[in-house]
Amino acid sequence: MILLQAKICDEAQNKNRNYKQNNNRTMGYFIITDSNWARLRDEILNLAETCQKAFGEQSRHTDWLHNGDVCKLLNISKRTLQHYRDTGVLPCSQIGHKCYYKREDVERLLQTKSEKSKNG
């Protein structure tokens, strides 16, 4: 068997007690059998695997750019960038009042622009 020790912490009760009383609280003990511990470990590992599949390698390496960075890379004005956003040429994600662009989307647009300039 595995023995775990955990401090009992109840915020609602702690609000009404002073500091000295909170520090004198006793520890509670939980006894977990080996089989329960193995099940808990397996569930945690399965959860970690599910998260890895959901968010994956590619999501961890997604590079987000701000307006200024995108304007410099594409050599365009902020107004042109806004036009690209409004017309769907360059998708963005907005958090608060800030727009963020995926580097892959910006590079794809840059590639498209360079191909058009070569052909026309």
TrEMBL record:
SUPFAM superfamilies: Putative DNA-binding domain (SSF46955). InterPro entries: DNA-bd_dom_put_sf, HTH_17. Residues 68-113 form the Helix-turn-helix domain. Pfam families: HTH_17 (PF12728). It comes from the Bacteria. Gene3D superfamilies: 1.10.1660.10. This is Helix-turn-helix domain-containing protein. It comes from Prevotella intermedia.
